[in-house]
Design goal:
By secondary structure, the protein is mostly helical. It contains 19 helices and no strands. The chain folds into three domains: 181 residues, Growth Hormone, Chain: A (Up-down Bundle), CATH 1.20.1250.20; 56 residues; 232 residues, Up-down Bundle (Growth Hormone, Chain: A). The longest helix has 38 residues.
């Protein structure tokens, strides 16, 4: 067979050269790729537990603390589609290796951070290299495992690492913060990345897409710039004297709107769009992506503020806080398994609707927190209900977002699920933290700044933020009920169904 014919066949199969025999070292390669995925998942949950300690050590203000989370999720979500294109065109193994080394270097920078700006920069770099690493890892698995049953097993392992890694991160984050220092929550990535790099060099086979391989650089710049301006506008609302009415806040929000509008216009005109608009125009898919943004924003409210509530209000240690979150991780895994079994029979609409209602009710319950709320009777039930709700949402959401997509658009549609969650988390963290700081400041003007008044002011701020989170989750549930319908011919083969159900969703 000629090189041209092989290239054409590889293009038709999503970049996989079906003329090559299966990789004999594919299961060892899976172990290496899973180790890298573990590092990415660990980094999300491990840093959440360390937030209060890092904020205190680097003298980060309440208005700016959300950048510890947002700097990562914004660059990760904003660059994820572009990172997938780079991996496909530049070489998936090469992108994977560069992502590992870059992630390790950014982690070292964060671990050595001397001030807030240095930490925020490190987190942004982690997100950028994560946006290169994550899609390269998924693409390498798809290329290495071409047989349907083997691929289902490989994605099952990958998904289990994603679910279990979150729980490991919560515990290790608590241990490292309590018995070492919060800096090790970042530095721990270095040995993991170096081991994965050393093993990947001989074990992982290189592959890349053929045919048209031009990049949409303007699209990547416009999308990331627009999202950054939007998040920064939300943040300025917390620090400016006039809050949402300040000239600075309005300027940044208008700039964000213009950049995102130009992005949509550009994507409709360019021959190689970063985000083909046809992917969004299907009703089920478009609504799924919007719901993904809303749930990502709403869920970040719980993670961001509950960590501070547990440690600063209830006096939990970092380790105890990590243990307190374990029922949430376990509930998501169990509910996701149940959802995967029920989805073919009852379709996505009812699963996602029930999940959205449960998550909304859980968040509404958290609005009743006070200075002495019980973990067993108040916090734990909310965590369990929220985790079950999110588990019932994630699996059908991913499946619906991929249903009816052509092979050519499968990669970008899959990446959009992850990207919208990360972007939603970024926007949610900025918006909710702004609402929190504004509420606390308002409370202080009427109740004074005595220690008890400040403590009650923080509770008031948490409850206002949780109320907004509940509205975001409720909006997602309403959209699902009104617009999501069971797709015709959702999946064509058992292998595809298993792959989609097993595909991990990164929760931050």
């Amino acid at each position: 067979m000629s090189q041209e014919t092989a290239a054409a066949q590889a293009t038709a199969t999503g970049g996989r050269d079906t003329t090559r025999p299966p990789d004999s070292r594919r299961w060892l390669a899976l172990a290496v790729i899973a180790l890298a995925q573990l590092m990415v998942v660990l980094d999300a949950t491990v840093v959440n537990i360390a937030l209060p300690s890092a904020q205190k050590a680097l003298h980060i203000s309440d208005a700016d603390r959300q950048w510890i989370v947002t700097a990562y999720t914004l660059t990760f979500g904003g660059l994820l589609l572009f990172g997938g294109r780079i991996a496909d065109y530049f070489g998936r193994k090469r992108a994977f290796l560069i992502g590992l080394l870059g992630f390790a270097a950014a982690s070292a920078l964060g671990g050595a951070a001397a001030n807030a700006g240095m930490l925020f920069t490190a987190r942004a770099l982690q997100g950028a290299f994560g946006a290169l690493l994550a899609p390269a890892a998924l693409s390498l698995l798809t290329v290495a495992f071409t047989e349907a049953k083997e691929r289902a097993k490989a994605f099952g392992v990958f998904g289990a690492i994603s679910g279990g890694g979150a729980a490991i991160g919560l515990i290790s984050g608590g241990l490292l913060t309590e018995y070492a220092t919060w800096r090790w929550c970042l530095l721990v990535n270095i040995p993991i990345a170096l081991v994965a790099f050393a093993a990947a060099v001989p074990l992982v086979r290189e592959s890349r897409a053929h045919g048209n391989t031009r990049y949409d650089v303007p699209g990547a710049i416009l999308a990331t710039g627009g999202l950054t301006a939007l998040v920064y506008g939300f943040t300025k609302a917390a620090t400016e004297h006039d809050h949402w009415r300040s000239t600075t806040t309005i300027t940044w929000l208008v700039l964000a709107g213009l950049l995102l509008a130009v992005f949509i216009w550009w994507e409709s005109r360019t021959s190689n769009p970063l985000l083909p608009l046809r992917v969004l125009l299907d009703r089920n898919r478009g609504v799924s992506y919007l719901v993904s943004v809303l749930t990502g924003a709403g869920m970040l409210g719980m993670f961001l503020f509950m960590t501070y509530y547990l440690q600063l209000t209830l006096g939990y240690s970092a380790l105890r806080s990590g243990v307190a979150y374990l029922p949430f991780s376990g509930g998501i895994v169990v509910a996701a398994i149940i959802a995967a079994q029920l989805l073919p029979r009852i379709g996505p609409r009812w699963l996602m609707s029930v999940g959205g209602v449960l998550a909304t009710a859980a968040m509404a319950w958290l609005t009743q927190l006070d200075l002495h709320s019980s973990y067993v009777t108040h916090i734990l039930p909310s965590f369990v209900a929220m985790s079950i709700g999110m588990g019932l949402m994630f699996v059908p959401l991913s499946s619906t977002a991929l249903s009816g997509v052509s092979d050519h658009d499968a990669g970008v549609a899959s990446a959009m699920v992850n990207a919208t969650q990360q972007v939603g988390g970024s926007l949610g963290a900025a918006l909710l933290n702004t609402i929190f700081t504004t509420a606390v400041a308002t409370y202080a003007t009427t109740h004074g700044v005595a220690p008890l008044a400040l403590a009650n002011g923080a509770i008031y701020g948490y409850n206002v933020a949780f109320t907004v989170s509940a509205f975001l989750l409720a909006a997602g549930a309403v959209l699902v009920f009104l617009f999501i319908r069971k797709p015709a011919g959702t999946v064509s083969t058992d292998g595809e169904a298993a792959e989609r159900a097993a595909e991990p969703v990164l929760v931050h």
